[in-house]
Design goal:
With 57 residues, the chain is mostly helical. It contains two helices and no strands. The protein has one domain (3-55). 81% of the residues lie in helices and 0% in strands.
């Protein structure tokens, strides 16, 4: 394969992964009612989101 083509494919793949991760993060973030949480509770909710994401891999 052409070296330039491989480079472009890697760049597109990385962009796609970053987009998916960003969308998932904001989707989980929007599920939280931030106004009612203390900093401690908010941190616990983020940990739950992260652990559920890791278990789905």
């Amino acid at each position: 394969m052409n070296r330039h083509l491989v480079s472009v494919l890697w760049k597109r793949s990385i962009e796609a992964v970053l987009l998916i991760v960003t969308m998932k993060f904001f989707n989980n973030f929007n599920k939280l009612d931030v106004g009612t949480y203390t900093k401690h509770n908010f941190t616990n909710e983020l940990r739950k989101c992260n652990s559920s994401h890791k278990s789905s891999l």
